[in-house]
Amino acid sequence: MATETANGSEASTDVPVAVNGESDLDELVATADVVLADFHADWCGPCKALEPVVERIAETTEATVAKVDVDENQGLASSYGVRGVPTLVLFADGEQVEQVVGAQPEAQLRELIEGYTE
C-alpha cells in the first residue's frame, strides 16, 4: 500500500519509512491517517529487539510506520520529549494521540493502533 505525499511522491506504508528531520515527519503525519513514529538508536538493545515488531506492524496494519534515528535527529526527538529509546509516538488525523516508552509487546502496539484505525 502506498500513500501519496504532498510533493507527489509515494511513501510506502508496508515498510517503515526513514524520517530525517521535522519536515519529513510533519509531511508524513499530514498525509497518512495514522502514523506510528519509532524514535530509536542504532546502539540501543531494546530498539533492536523492537525492530522486527515494528516491521510486522508496518506490513500488516493500516498505520504508516516512521523510523526516527534520535542521534541524527536530536532536535526532533527533543521537540517530542523523547528522553529514552525506544519511544513510540502515535499520530492520528494529524495530531499526536499517544506516546509510549520502552519496547512494547506487539499485541499492545496493535491494540493501540487499532483504536485509531477503526
UniProtKB/TrEMBL annotation:
Statement: the UniProt record of this protein carries the keyword Thylakoid: no
Domain of life assignment: Archaea
GO MF assignments: protein-disulfide reductase activity
Alphabetized PROSITE patterns for the sequence: THIOREDOXIN_1 (PS00194), THIOREDOXIN_2 (PS51352)
InterPro entries with a match to the protein in the record: Thioredoxin (IPR005746), Thioredoxin-like_sf (IPR036249), Thioredoxin_CS (IPR017937), Thioredoxin_domain (IPR013766)
Positions of the Thioredoxin domain: 5-118
Pfam family, one: Thioredoxin
Keyword annotations of the record: Disulfide bond, Electron transport, Redox-active center, Transport
A GO cellular component annotation in the UniProt record: cytoplasm
Protein name, per record: Thioredoxin
Organism: Halosimplex carlsbadense 2-9-1
